[in-house]
């Protein structure tokens, strides 16, 4: 059946369910039939939603009940100047200049990030490094009490190799790095951490952990209650991610000469450092925030939307800590040291939304589409570039606050 009108009529009459249309037509026809049905049920015109440029079949792994696409304006910032190449094992994955695509509806965001990047570039570029990597999944088990909990923990600690063999049998890429037990009364949580290479790896970690849980159940008194016990912790604010990290932990920093701060940011290193301390550190502490930054999630969210990351995991990006320190040179000039540390940046360059056409093109702009050589290097590079973008956003916003230019900047841009 290829007539969308006929398909829509069958849905209205109850002969077909809305999720069954792909069984009777190609993906684009099914999407059109749904639009017709929704238009008539709600009295709306979905012309723009239906004006997408890629075959609907390409989105089949990413969406159900497709009716079209949401179009978000995308721009670029940059070049993002990353000093990644270094002798020895401490070299970063991203090196050189990269244009970073950002998709957002927030006016003035890209202009602000670009201003920060210009200052960073003039200062000689930023350093960025992934310092830890581990996608986590933490199942919860039931035991009778503390004695069985201790027995389970002891077995897990003594049998890492068996757990790794079971988990890694489900994937050709993932590698089990660690299993950390936690006990709360008659509940045992096991926080599995994986190197998922260039994939963000949430699905990989879930499937692998499910296999390992069967071994735990067969060898210990513990009974699996849920494959995710929220100690992972995915898509929600959690101190464990701020402390232990999840996905990639990445830090970026730059030293900006004092004269450059005054010339380009129209303020001083001391003023920016004070604004950061009173706003991002003291203010965040008073608010009970898990993150100590100005708006790092802004840049991360825009980068996630542009490059096909799981947008709900932006919540973990808010764990970022921003530092700004005034450093005196021997000649009395005060320079600005600026850094961002993102404890839990969950990114990938293969799988999930990265396969969608516009997101794939955005990764092409970065030169990071698909798997890297060695495996994991593309995702590492993406994390480092996003971190430098976040650093630029922090620098620009704090400078605007310190110089009292924030409101006038938004007025000048009409945002």
TrEMBL record:
<keyword id="KW-0521">NADP</keyword>
<dbReference type="InterPro" id="IPR004554">
    <property type="entry name" value="HMG_CoA_Rdtase_eu_arc"/>
</dbReference>
<dbReference type="InterPro" id="IPR009023">
    <property type="entry name" value="HMG_CoA_Rdtase_NAD(P)-bd_sf"/>
</dbReference>
<dbReference type="GO" id="GO:0008299">
    <property type="term" value="P:isoprenoid biosynthetic process"/>
</dbReference>
<dbReference type="GO" id="GO:0004420">
    <property type="term" value="F:hydroxymethylglutaryl-CoA reductase (NADPH) activity"/>
</dbReference>
<dbReference type="InterPro" id="IPR009029">
    <property type="entry name" value="HMG_CoA_Rdtase_sub-bd_dom_sf"/>
</dbReference>
<dbReference type="InterPro" id="IPR002202">
    <property type="entry name" value="HMG_CoA_Rdtase"/>
</dbReference>
<dbReference type="InterPro" id="IPR023074">
    <property type="entry name" value="HMG_CoA_Rdtase_cat_sf"/>
</dbReference>
<dbReference type="Pfam" id="PF00368">
    <property type="entry name" value="HMG-CoA_red"/>
</dbReference>
<dbReference type="InterPro" id="IPR023076">
    <property type="entry name" value="HMG_CoA_Rdtase_CS"/>
</dbReference>
<dbReference type="GO" id="GO:0015936">
    <property type="term" value="P:coenzyme A metabolic process"/>
</dbReference>
<comment type="pathway">
    <text>Metabolic intermediate biosynthesis; (R)-mevalonate biosynthesis; (R)-mevalonate from acetyl-CoA: step 3/3.</text>
</comment>
<keyword id="KW-0560">Oxidoreductase</keyword>
<protein>
    <recommendedName>
        <fullName>3-hydroxy-3-methylglutaryl coenzyme A reductase</fullName>
        <ecNumber>1.1.1.34</ecNumber>
    </recommendedName>
</protein>
<dbReference type="GO" id="GO:0016126">
    <property type="term" value="P:sterol biosynthetic process"/>
</dbReference>
<comment type="similarity">
    <text>Belongs to the HMG-CoA reductase family.</text>
</comment>
């Amino acid at each position: 059946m290829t007539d969308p009108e006929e398909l829509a009529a069958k849905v209205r009459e109850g002969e077909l369910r809305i999720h069954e249309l792909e069984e009777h037509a190609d993906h684009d026809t099914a999407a059109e039939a749904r639009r017709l049905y929704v238009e008539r049920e709600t009295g709306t015109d979905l012309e723009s939603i239906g004006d997408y440029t890629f075959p609907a079949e390409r989105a089949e792994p990413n969406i159900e009940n497709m009716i079209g696409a949401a179009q978000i304006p995308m721009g670029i910032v940059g070049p993002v100047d990353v000093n990644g190449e270094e002798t020895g094992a401490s070299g970063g994955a991203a090196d050189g200049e990269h244009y970073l695509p950002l998709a957002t509806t927030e006016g003035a965001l890209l202009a602000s990030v670009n201003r920060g990047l210009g200052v960073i570039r003039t200062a000689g570029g930023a350093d960025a490094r992934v310092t830890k990597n581990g996608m986590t999944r933490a199942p919860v088990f039931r035991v009778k009490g503390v004695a069985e909990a201790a027995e389970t923990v002891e077995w897990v600690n003594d049998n890492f190799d068996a757990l790794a063999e079971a988990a890694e049998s489900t994937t050709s890429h993932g590698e089990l790095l660690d299993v950390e037990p936690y006990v709360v009364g008659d509940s045992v949580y096991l926080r599995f951490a994986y190197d998922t290479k260039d994939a963000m790896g949430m699905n990989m970690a879930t499937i692998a952990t499910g296999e390992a849980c069967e071994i735990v159940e067969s060898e210990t008194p513990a009974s699996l209650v849920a494959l995710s016990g929220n100690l992972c912790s995915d898509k929600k604010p959690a101190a464990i991610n701020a402390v232990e990290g999840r996905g990639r932990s990445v830090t970026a920093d730059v030293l900006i000469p004092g004269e450059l701060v005054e010339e380009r940011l129209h303020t001083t290193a001391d003023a920016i450092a004070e604004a950061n301390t009173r706003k991002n550190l003291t203010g965040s502490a008073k608010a009970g925030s898990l993150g100590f930054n100005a708006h790092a999630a802004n840049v991360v969210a825009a980068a996630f939307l542009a490059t096909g990351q799981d947008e709900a995991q932006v919540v973990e990006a808010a764990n970022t800590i921003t530092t700004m320190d005034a450093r005196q040179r021997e000649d009395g000039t005060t320079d600005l040291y600026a850094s961002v540390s993102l404890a839990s940046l969950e990114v990938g360059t293969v799988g999930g939304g990265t396969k969608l056409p516009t997101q794939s093109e955005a990764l092409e702009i970065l030169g990071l589409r698909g798997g890297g050589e060695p495996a994991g290097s593309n995702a590492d590079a993406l994390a480092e570039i996003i971190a430098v973008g976040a650093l630029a956003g922090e620098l620009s916003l704090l400078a605007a606050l310190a110089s009292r230019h924030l409101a006038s900047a938004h007025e000048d841009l009409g945002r």
